[in-house]
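Quick one - first record:
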Amino acid sequence: MNQNSKLIANKLFKLSPLFIALSVNTAVAGEIEVIEVKVQKRTQSVQDVPVAVSAFNGDMMDQLRIEDVRGLVDLTPGFSGKTEDSFIDALSIRGIGTNDFGIGGDPSVAIFTDGLWAGRNGGVQMSFYDMERAEVVKGPQGTLFGRNAIAGGINITTNKPISDFEAKVGVTIAQFDTQEITGMVNIPLTDNWYFRAAGNFSTKGAWLENEGGGGDLGGGEISSTRLSLRYEGDDVDAVFRATYEDRDQDPSIYWTEGSGVPEDKVNIDWGKGKGHDRGEILALQANVEFTLSDEYLLTSITGYKTYDFDYLEDYDGQADLINNYGQDQTVDYASQELRLNYQGDGSVNWFVGISAYKEDVDATFINSYSEDDLCRAVSITDADDFDGPAAGCDDENWETYWEDDIDPADILTNKPETNIDILKNNGWSVYGDITWEATEKLDLTVGGRYTSDTKDMSIKVLDSGGALGNTFVFEWYTEDFVQAKDTWTDFTPRIAGVYQLNDEINIYANAAKGYKSGGFSTFGIQHDDSQEYGGPLAAGSKPLAFEPETTTSYEIGAKMMLLEKSMQLNLAYFTYDYQDLQMIIFEGGSQLVKNVGEAQNHGIEADVRWTPTDNWDLRLAGAWMDSEITQEIEEGDGTLGNSLPMAPELSGSMVATYFHYMDEGIVTLIAKWVYQSEIYGGPGNYETAKVDSWNELGLRAMYESNDEWTVSLYIDNVTNAEYFERGWENADADNTYGFGLLNSKVWPAKPRTVGVSFDMSF
């Protein structure tokens, strides 16, 4: 930890509500209502769960404008990697994430909506509206969540239909031509059947100037609807949900140091309307609870999710057509889970379960470029191989490098290199967890999950022709699909203990193994090294496989209710060893997923909530972590001792809420401040792909009338802070040997935005 980080951490501590509380009279403090969670598959206070959890109820998410899973990142210590697009390849909890944007692997941060796995890139980022709560659980959660939850799990719960009529409508208008409409109606049909419908529509205008022309960027439109039907009987509680979402927005935008524009603008070769990020998502599920007796509860979660994802971006971030990346995929996912819970009056509670899934993914990937633009770019980035920049592919300098004469008539513009990938996944797991009340103060928990994942990958690479043939991603083509199939299994145990030190303080410890199954590289084929460049791959070639990754994690912490229950203070220390990281490595333009190196990380996280009076609600969250690559990715590559990507040393947030009570209603003032120290875009820790530290302030003023209407004014990014959401390492430290690509940064921060909202409840 460097000296500046120590000073910042010290200041954060001294400014914390805990420090201030030592000199404040709390006789009129408000008692905190603790959020209940279902992290351990049963309803518990968040203070009783032996694991670090950040929990948010629906009202808080509405007030802070948390619109999807990315909105949880800023307020959760140890969580980073929010993105503007529909990918989750930057999400990281405690430094564990995956930068694989293909289909052959799985996300490291497992996301579940009402118990159903939310999926992969293109299908996860569904809108938040009419929410009950969201829980971010940190550390490996294979026992509790399954499905490769090596970094942690996010458990999203929507509101169930209820037995009373209620309705709500909300309208928001903001700068940059932003409009949003949200509505909900809940109708009791009979004494046992209830219906609930909720929807959200939003449109956002462009705000990012592209000096390459073609109009500003950053706009989009999302419409989403959720229909729920519930039967609530004496022994059965069943909820049936159907959710549909349609998304059409601009894709990710990249900025490079070679673009010649300031960091609040971009200079790329296309404008508004040429790139896109489109998705159509349908999710159907049935959650049924059978009360077998006072002690036994049987839960069934049946789910089906299908979505089409169509994506196209200017990946090179430059004014020339060097690489436009496209991905068009269809996903069908079905799963079934059965779980039996026992919770009696004795000293032992437990659950056991079984789950199975089947997933089919059909995807087409396109990397398009103009051959002359690519030849010029390669001659600049890989300058040591050239006598000087080449004007195009038929330049003598390029032909010397290429070792072949090129006919100008063969040179293509906007040429696609295309590969078609078909992935068929299926898997199953059995799991269980038992908690023993060893004494009145000590609970011990032991659990485990046995997992089996089978993946069957087929890849077909088309011959792109032109002067260069296949050169950017693959250096060959296939005459038909090449195929490989494999099965990976593992057992992931967990042990935890909670000790009630007194009525106000619980201390806990846990140890767990994390596991993420192996898979296949979307853009890699294993072949004979003697294969002739440019021709069809020989028989016996198959998709490039990678092995599972694992982590061994330990955590200790304390959960406290202090100052007459007006302060909730949760602290956690974690440490883990990370083996066989699955990471995309860029080699000559190709994006290959490999098992690379080993790493360690340890850190401290804190969540504080303090209500010193009925008028104040203060929340502070912070994290410090120190990650290190302990085994080089490739011998002599310089990564030894570097930090993990997407792992800021310091991150934190503070939300201060003031309530002014009036006869006619309540005035609420909210200030939200978020801080993140520098993060690296890859294991090389290159300065050209590093995002500098930043902080952002948001304000909101709200009036809630006793007549069930609310009006509010909000300002995002009050100080016009300038920063990027993340970086990507495509080349080396000096932006050389990137085969035409440069290290880049993604999406500059949206400027100050002012908006107004009006809500009415019935």
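second record:
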Amino acid sequence: MDKKAIIGFVLIMALLLLWMPLWNAIFPPKPQPVKAPIDSTAVHTPGLADTSHTKPESLATALPTTLAPPDSTATADSTQEPERLITIDTRTIRVVLSSIGGTVKQVVLKHYLNFNGEQVQFLGEQSTPEWARYGALTIGYNDRLSTFNSQSFHVEGDSTILNPQDTSSIVTFTYAAPNGAKVIKKYTFHYNDYIFDLDVDIKDPAKLNLAQGVTLGWFAPLEPTELDITQDKGKLGGFFSMGGEFDYFKKIKGDTLKQIVTGPIDWVATRTKYFTAVVMAQSEPGREVVVLGGRVAHLNPKGGTTPWEVFGAGITYDNPPADAHFAFNIYTGPLDYDRLQKMDKGLSALVDFGWKYFRPFAIAILWFFTNLHKAIPNYGFVIIVFSIIMKVIFWPLTLKSTKSMYKMKEIQPKLSEIKEKYKNDPAKLNTETMKAYKEYGVNPFGSCLPMLIQLPIFWALYAVLSNTIELRGAGFVFWITDLSQPDPSGKLIPLGIGIMPIIMGIAMFFQQKMTITDPKQKMMVYLMPVLFTYLFSKWASGLVLYWTVFSVIGILEQWMVQRHIKAEQEAKRTG
């Protein structure tokens, strides 16, 4: 959850909790009379050259790099052959491999589109920092890049389009140094998966200046995919699992980041808001993780530049033997919670569900949404059903809260009497006031209780609607074409507040007017709808839809509650 959303929630809860105490402190109570929250089909397949429009530009001043220059003592072949590109097409991804370094040059996701309506591409042309220049899955030691990453590798294998009957496709890159050292990188691709395999064999690592260790990782920063580039920016970082515990580094101090942590490393990853690249240790855990970061200026969809942070993460194996072998699984795909959960290894932690204490609620909501979506193929109507169910679940609490509000009005004369009697004795005043509350069975904060209890649901719903791939691009009706984004009509209306938030604010106003009958709280009738309308206009339209339905049902609910209370009062008078 971003900072603006957190501030919004804090403002809402502070207003709910502090309104009455502050009002009563300024205006002493007077006796009152008793009143009755899609995967799209690809339409265009961009070539590798299509990434040029996202080429990052360096900042005005040259940035220091976190990576030392390639080790000049390593022996390199002086003959350099032209780069050869190998393209492997599976059902889900297109991977472009380069004979220079035997690295991944590009990954295209066939079933997801970016803000241009083109298939999502992971990588752009990166000139800085140094560690980002040679594509993904380079080899070195911690932050030192080995020179053979810029050398030509011999290629065995051709471009291939896999079919369902194909079990796999293998491409092998071999680099033979003049001093006898050798590096072999074997890629294995599968038809129906976002995962491919990488086996690395290194003969005589010491002759390649890798005696201390070998680091392999995803050191190619991912490209933004959303129209609002800041949405991706807030999710960037270097992530890893150490001994089964999820952790990450994402704060860059100054212009660079370099973090090395020792421990059993199961996997490392980089991500954007909806997509991730993961390097998983297959044979045995690594001994260290290295996370590198830097700052660049990136072209944004509006034609200007945006400060952008780039990250890479790698797994290090210490003191490799003379004939070293390393095996990895590489995942390049969507941040799909169910898919990552089935892969185990704790990869589902990469899906941002917000604060860890609310995470179980978010997982439950996502499960409900995806399963109900099988029967109702429109997430907007799924959210409406969810809103109705939440109202039914919280009905007993709402009834109790409303009764407490009515009792508060009934005991106002008693409270005024106590305040006048003990106005010079604060301790006694507090004791007698609490005694009166207990005697009449009143909770002074009862009206806030339903909101407080629903807060985990609300926060979790925000996370699901804003961060899950299932809701990305999910339309509702009319102008609401993406429930994960703010109401687009706000771009056409003064103050930037869309049609749906305005409808929500109106519904809230009438609900508040029916709920709040105490003159001391009259300002809440106007203030709360205005505050909520402004805050929600910046959030996912799916969340606005949820709260709109919640408020509309709340109007009917208040009418039913008031009838119920009046019936009880009438029964007492006639009984």
